[in-house]
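User: Please predict the structure of the protein below. I'd like the answer in structure-token form so I can feed it into my own downstream comparison script.

Assistant: Understood. Taking the following sequence of 134 residues as input:
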Amino acid sequence: MKLSKKKYNLEFLSTRHYLSQQLEAMLAEHNFHPHRALRKGANTIYIKAADHIEDLLTFMGAGGAAMRIMDQRMYNDMRNKTNRLSNCETANLGKSVQAARGSSRPDGSVSTGWSRCAPARCGAAAQRTRRPPR
């Protein structure tokens, strides 16, 4: 069995072709969805879906191994969700900081866009009110 951080494989290797066909038929009969390949002269029957691997291990009497896979999947799922939330929060904070920086001017005044719309006679008053105190 191969466990990685992203995918799971359970493989059965046999040099006997007829035996591998029987194993594949038996696994298919119990809905474990097996696949077959010929690798380096050996017949390989493999199952890729983690749910099917857990079910097969339980069916074979290896409940402890099935529980370890379930634990690992829950851990990976929780870690992925945590990383996803952290990445979203970091992106949102970055956007907020960028928005705050984008609305301020080099002289320290804040651009609200109001003076562009205000009449010419109010423009000077708007400039005075937006300047921070020194």
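That's the full token string. Residues 63-102 form the longest helix (40 residues).
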